[in-house]
Design a protein that fits this description.
With 39 residues, the protein is mainly α. It contains 1 helix and no strands. Helix content is 95%, strand content 0%.
């Protein structure tokens, strides 16, 4: 039971890390796109 709980916790931590990386990547691409549109 405890091992399953910790495994789920690890998956949630990994998912949150991936989500934050995706958010950062989308933010960067959006900034680059806006800069390209301005020029």
């Amino acid at each position: 039971m405890f091992s399953l709980f910790f495994a789920m916790r690890g998956d949630l931590m990994a998912l949150s890390r991936v989500a934050s990386l995706l958010a950062e990547a989308t933010k960067r691409t959006r900034m680059q796109l806006s800069m390209n549109w301005q020029t």
